[in-house]
Design goal:
Order of helices and strands: HHHHHH
CATH topology of one domain: Methane Monooxygenase Hydroxylase, Chain G, domain 1
Strand content: under 5%
CATH architecture of one domain: Up-down Bundle
Number of helices: 6
Distance between the termini: 180 Å
CATH superfamily of one domain: Ribosomal protein S20
Shape: rod-shaped
Length: 214
């Protein structure tokens, strides 16, 4: 903890001095402060180098800040408008910012879907188009096949009641034809053959009379 405090005591003033000299150089270059722009730029670059050498900031961060500062000062001396504030001040509300973000996302998605405008990208786009066309054709064929199956099923189901109705009509017709014959047969009684009584055996009366006469 003591080491961190000692490092903060050494590094913090150097960071603050570098930031102060950088902002002073920008203000002098844009005319917001009286002074020599070239000398202010040199002082800021030297402060960034000292901070990087002491370890207050990273060497790459120092180089990046020096490059940005140099370009900004040169642009300001050339007459271009340069932003002096360290950060941009948002002037749009949350709703407008949300709409802008959605628009950027949609534009990025459209560019990504479009693909690279190269020979390989065009070939991939053509392949994707043909694949989509083939998929659409196969889907249409499958839908037509399913529709034909449904129509055939409905036709068979409608034909079954018709067949049943014809069979029923034929059965009623045959029944109506056979009904009068059945009624006539019921009215005329059938003659039943009665069995004849067996013949009586003749008694031997005469033979007995002859015997008595003898």
């Amino acid at each position: 903890m003591r080491t961190a405090e000692r490092r903060a005591e050494v590094n913090q003033p150097r960071r603050s001095a570098a930031k102060t000299l950088v902002s002073k150089a920008v203000k002098v270059a844009t005319g917001g402060q009286v002074g020599d722009a070239v000398q202010a730029l040199k002082d800021a670059l030297s402060a960034l180098d000292r901070a990087a050498k002491a370890g207050a900031i990273h060497a790459n961060a120092a180089a990046r800040r020096k490059s940005r500062l140099t370009r900004k000062v040169n642009a300001a001396l050339g007459g271009a408008h340069v932003q002096t504030a360290p950060k941009l001040t948002k002037t749009t509300g949350k709703a407008a910012a949300g709409k802008a973000a959605k628009a950027r996302i949609a534009l990025a998605k459209a560019d990504k879907a479009k693909g690279a405008q190269t020979a390989a990208g065009k070939a991939r786009a053509a392949l994707s188009k043909t694949a989509r066309a083939e998929a659409a054709a196969s889907a249409a064929a499958a839908a037509a096949k399913a529709e034909s199956k449904v129509q055939s099923r409905t036709a068979t189901t409608s034909a079954k009641p018709a067949r049943a109705a014809t069979k029923k009509a034929a059965a009623t017709k045959t029944a109506s034809k056979t009904a009068p014959a059945a009624k006539a047969a019921a009215k005329s009684p059938t003659k039943v053959a009665t069995p004849k009584a067996p013949a009586r055996a003749k008694t031997p009366a005469k033979t007995s009379a002859k015997k008595s006469e003898v």
